[in-house]
Every structure is written in structure tokens, then in C-alpha cells.
């Protein structure tokens, strides 16, 4: 059975593959163990389709976070950063409590 673009995109995300070169290396590794599905997909579909599958796989994975960020105002983003910058922790040093910036 032939690998679909969707199946390849799921594998790309699961394996954390970010570039065509990484995918080619993984396909070759799999081919050496007798699994040629990925290599066949790459050769049969060509570089444009492979690049599109790579890009779409990560675009789908990151879509919700990107959408959430786009809904925030600049003030919300800056306020959250300010809170993180001003975060403090209290630690015990030589029997005394000391505030430190995180």
C-alpha cells in the first residue's frame, strides 16, 4: 500500500523532521531496513510535493498556537512579558529568606 501525503505529514511531526534533508536521511535509513514507503513517496512525488507536505505538516501542528497569539492584543502580550520579567522567587540562603529574580 502506498503512503499518503497525510501519513507522511503525521510521520514528519512524530519524528520531529524539519527539513527535506532530514526526511531523505530518515527515508534512506528506513530503506536499509527494508521499508521503502517513504523513499518511494519522495521519488514518485518529487521535491515540490515533499516540500509542501513538510511545510503543511508543521503549519497544521502550530496553527492553534498561532491563532491564539493572533487574537491577543499587543498590551496583553506586553503585560504577560512584564509579569514574567518581574517574577520573583524566595529561596533559603544560610537560614535567611532571600528574594531573587527568576
CA radius of gyration: 23 Å
Order of strands in the sheet with most strands: 1-2
Topology pattern, helix = H, strand = E: HHHHHEE
Number of domains: 2
> Helix- and strand-based class?
mainly alpha
Tell me, briefly, the overall form.
Answer: elongated
N→C terminal distance: 53 Å
Range of helix content: 55-70%
Biggest sheet descriptor = 2 strands, antiparallel
Helix count from the secondary structure assignment: 5
Strand proportion, as a percent range, falls in 5-15%
**What's the mean pLDDT score?**
85
The low-confidence runs, each spanning 5 or more residues with pLDDT under 50, are none
Number-wise, the strands total: 2
Q: What do you see in this structure?
A:
With 102 residues, this protein is mainly alpha-helical. Helices cover 69% and strands 12% of the residues. It starts with a helix and ends with a strand. The model has no long low-confidence stretch (mean pLDDT 85).
Which SSEs are present, and which pair or pack?
Layout: H1 5-15, H2 20-32, H3 37-45, H4 47-71, H5 74-85, E1 88-93, E2 96-101
Antiparallel strand pairs: 1-2
Helix pairs in contact: 1-4, 2-3, 3-4
Task: Provide keyphrases for this structure.
102 residues, mainly alpha, 2 domains, two-stranded antiparallel sheet, 5 helices, elongated
Give a short overview.
With 102 residues, the protein is mainly α. Helix content is 69%, strand content 12%. Helix 1 (5-15) packs across helix 4, helix 2 crosses helix 3 and helix 3 crosses helix 4.
